[in-house]
Amino acid sequence: MTSQTSTEYETYYVPDKSKLAVCATIGLMLSIFGAASIMNDMTFGDPEAATSSWSIFWIGLFFFAATLFNWFRIAIKENIEGLNSAQLKKSYVLGMFWFIFSEVMFFFAFFGALFYVRNLAGPWLASEGEGGRMNYLLWEGFEYTWPMLQTPQEAIGGVANQITANNGTYQSAETTMAFGDAAAWYKWLPLWNTIILLSSSFTVHIAHMGLLDGNKKKFNLWLGLTVLLGIIFVFVQAYEYYEAYAHFGLTLNSGIYGSTFFMLTGFHGFHVLMGMTMLLIQWLRSVRGGHFTADDHFGFEASSWYWHFVDVVWVFLFLFVYIL
Amino acid sequence: MCFEAKRLAKLALGPVLMLLSMVSAGVMAAGEKVNEVNMAPGVTAVGQNIFDLHMTIFWICVIIGLLVFGVMFYSIIYHRKSRGVTPATFHESTKVEIAWTVVPFLILIGMAVPATSTLLEIYDVEDAEMDILITGYQWKWKYEYLSDDGENVSFFSNLRTPQSEIYNSEDKGQHYLLEVDEPLVIPVDTKVRFLVTANDVIHAWWVPELAVKRDAIPGFINETWTLAEEEGIYRGQCAELCGKDHGFMPVVVNVVSQGEYDEWLSGKKAEAAEIKELMAQTFTMDELMERGKAVYDRNCLACHGANGEGGVGTAIAASAIATGDLAGHLDVGINGVAGTAMQAFGGQINDVEMAAVITYQRNAFGNNMGDMVQPIDVFNHKKG
Amino acid sequence: MGDHHHGPAKGLSRWLFTTNHKDIGTMYLWFSFAMFIMGGAFAMVIRAELFQPGMQLVDPAFFNQMTTLHGLVMVFGAIMPSFVGLANWMIPMMIGAPDMALPRMNNWSFWILPPAFLLLASSLFMEGGAPAFGWTFYAPLSTTYAPPSVTYFIFSVHVLGLSSIMGSINIIATVMNMRAPGMTYMKMPLFVWTWLITAFLLVAVMPVLAGAVTMMLMDIHFGTSFFSAAGGGDPVLFQHIFWFFGHPEVYIIILPAFGVVSQIIPAFSRKPLFGYDSMVYATASIAFLSFIVWAHHMYTVGMPIAGELFFMYATMLIAVPTGVKVFNWITTMWRGAMTFETPMLFCIGFLVLFTIGGFTGLMLSIAPADFQYHDSYFVVAHFHYVMVAGAVFSMTAAVYYWLPKWCGRMYNETMGKTHFWISFIGFNVTFFPQHFVGLAGMPRRIPDYALQFADFNMMSSIGAFIYGASQILFLYNVIATIVAGKPVSDEKVWDGAEGLEWTVATPAPYHTFETPPTLDAKPAHA
Ligand code: HEA
Ligand code: HEA
Ligand code: CUA
Ligand SMILES: [Cu+2]
Fold first, then answer.
1. For residue B296, which of B280, B309, B284 has the smallest C-alpha distance?
2. Lower CB density within 10 Å: C or N end of chain A?
């Protein structure tokens, strides 16, 4: 059917052997071993006792980060040297796409947990609905609301009154993060954060348009602005966490409301940080290294996809964590 | 070559015949009372329905299996190269594909119908004549007969098989691992509703002959029910991995006539009243030690060892707490140690038992504190 | 870079630093075999303790650690990596690609596996012992009531997930992007198809597993209450998340096995695979259905009746596409000209035993009946029929089938056939009686059992030792072949085999298809 001679065919660049993978493995394993040991010291051991867990963790993490840095450096160099055929570039595109898909599924687990506790487990605990008719025998007086400002444990008067074993104590939050005072809407940080993050998606898009037009100046400017917006977002979020802990009584210990709130926004925040770092590196590459042309800028494009993804996750967060 | 292939075909028949004979052995034995090879139809209508469902699906699968493997073995025997056949070349047919999509689908619908109705029956917990709250603990069951007057009868049900049988130093009894100190007692021909929950981890309450298996989930109550139509003793086991002694928390249900049940219940109530009286009593050291040993062997031994040497739990012999401040010791016994296997026994054993076992721990295994705990001390400690 | 016409480097650095799909495939295969031995050793401890009633060899806590590690090591260490190894070796050769799409990442996917399992296995020596909460690690047994080693377990699961995700992304990119010109999707060998779909499943569910263990980590160390009712969470939430991963996981295990069988049966029937298109659609349907049936593992947790019914119907449906596959294989054999070399024997073994396992699966899917089957040895019997006789048998068939291509030497056929028969008999003696004890009421994950289960358990243990021992024969045969097997040089080792991998030299050169092959009009699977 199709017959193609080898001359028509661009060779697919298969890199020669490389130490990157093994180095990355060493760094990764050290850092997670360190991290696990730190947590075990905290929970199962004596938190004061001197251990080497932190050192192992930092050494591993540094080594890991350095290896990844080098890895990307080499990949970029290969591209500049012209080793990457169009087909290879498509492999990178596919790789990034499916990586983002896997991230979507990671968030899906946490959103799934949120929906489950809000729509099923919570009502059952309060003896509402099909699954929990008799549950008042265990949590007498617990009434389900969302955000859950009183845990079942507190509703019955604390650990001592619990029929089930004491597996930890949960203090309720005093205030919710939800939209409260209509008059003071401008003080509601999540709204500002939404605006900031949404506009950053626009700025990064404008930067992309600039690049496609070959207008590097426009590109650098708008990309820089995007990074800036990202930084602001992270600061606002950090301030909000501070508020939550200091004034709202909302902590990781605040029952399921605190658990889902911090895990969802926390992982999102972590992804914002990652996306921001990616964009920052692209900005540096462009400003300092003069990288990217109108038809070759996948490094940037991948980072911007990631940024849009982070943005979309926020929209869902805003909707399901803050508003509804 | 041809010879070898034939020999192989014969060899292949061996295992197939073995499988078939095992299956038929299983089916033939289905009718007997103590079952070693098949599901027990049990003594409830639901159980009978499940059993029928099980056998129906089993036979459908056997028939489909015989057809499919029949075609395959025919092919293996006749369409082999050594017979000099030339291979056909056909490789698709939309018609047959549709046929073998639709036919299994129809068979499945045939199975789904009785399955659905049986399931609806299992879920119908209404109109029960009595409620029993079943709580799973590591590693025992607690039964509480809920009554309107608030005077609930409740007790724990522990494995009765001695360690010596488990560790092979004695011959195993007939009901090895399936015997408890106090079985659940329910009346025959009565719809009993079980409210199943757990104290620590997930357990599952399973009695095959009552056709009940329901997970016991800490913090949630699951409802299920049974209606036993025959008196007798029915045995089951915890069916959800719940830690070290998951294999050692049997369920025994004694189904008795209504009369016997009433008698048993009033006996239980009298017992409770008696304990109330005992609570006010002061015991001598010997009495406490004697009672204490019994409580220890039943409740603590599994973790703390027959000689207080420890195991899952810390050693009691020469332990700092058991040879230290009395209040501290009581506290561990009553409230447990959060986050460890040491549970709060305050709600599991009564004050007399608690007083006895604490006294025992302080004066056995070489501990020689000489002090005593009276039920009233436990009571006061609980009040704070 | 550059010069690809040299062979592999010498020494250890060849393996550590390699980017070659064949080297990486080889490492995966050997690693998974090592894990198979380790998981098998754990199983031998289980079976030895269960040989007789009473506690003999190990204490109950250690027994639970054995059960847990056996399940984890077999699923994540033996089966999954073995098929990834096979994918690495075969997919580029089957679609005419020079290598995997992202070779360096490929190497990384492999190399994080051994340390992750080292970490997991080392938990055996940690204070409080190894994880003892079953391979399904239900909360709160795996959170509040877990030994400290659970933290290392959690991180090791994270790493396994990372490895699988990267490996799958690589496979997807390779299949979507690196097919030789003319190799359209509907011409790809079925093994490639099944792996493409498997990789998609992996990318979709491994992150969910990562989410589940992350929640555990937070509950254990940071005071959250995902799985604690006292704080408004629910232990059953864990099960939903776990099985949302776990059910697709079992198809991740079996789909590549389906692919292997779809390659081998036509080869030894000397007849094209029957119903290629419907095979592809059936695989896709199974994958789709696998996302909406997870709660069939949780019929007894007390779900509302509507959920119960939905999951029952959806689960039953899976029998339809799986049936299509079975019927297609048998029709492929029909009026072929069959021979019965070792790979074919293992495929026939697969066909019979997997179907039996599928039937018991269908019985389990009937919710009311599952109230009696659940967490009994009937379930253990079911999943060993599909996983050992399904996945392990087909993997074994694959090794016998492609080994000559890999190393240019022929294995010893008599020994191979002996291996098959001992395995087949040993397997059935081990796991068939487990149906009986399960139905008669023996729960799973128990170190000791009531007396009425004694006979069949003893039988099962004897079978397990036989089956285990037969693997020594396999190991010996493979090594002997590599070292001193009879050389073969035909490109086409099996006269009925079809596909691009049989057009390259034997043994397969270090680099194949640096320029894409030319495909003729004949579909690759024909
Ligand atoms: C390779 C892995 C694999 C595969 C392929 C399957 C296949 C199937 N499994 Fe299995 N399963 C497991 C691995 C697997 N399973 C594991 C590991 C567990 C236990 C996990 C744990 O708890 O530890 C488990 C447990 C498990 C349960 C839970 C049991 C319990 O804990 O109570 C259920 C319940 O529905 C189930 C059902 C099914 C079904 C319906 C299929 C179907 O896909 C089978 C379909 C195949 C056929 C039906 C045969 C061929 C078809 C025909 C010849 C067509 C005609 C047939 C008819 C119309 C009847 N499985
Ligand atoms: C694909 C996965 C896979 C595979 C291949 C196997 C293979 C085997 N499994 Fe297992 N099994 C599981 C997956 C698997 N299993 C899972 C997921 C569970 C559930 C865990 C849980 O409950 O959490 C389980 C649980 C399980 C149980 C129930 C435990 C319990 O509930 O307490 C038992 C009991 O018999 C068992 C037995 C065996 C045996 C005998 C083999 C044999 O096939 C193994 C044969 C292999 C070898 C023996 C090693 C290689 C050979 C040698 C090294 C030669 C030397 C050996 C000798 C001389 C004997 N397995
Ligand atoms: Cu309780 Cu298992
Ligand atoms: Cu499943």
1. B309
2. C
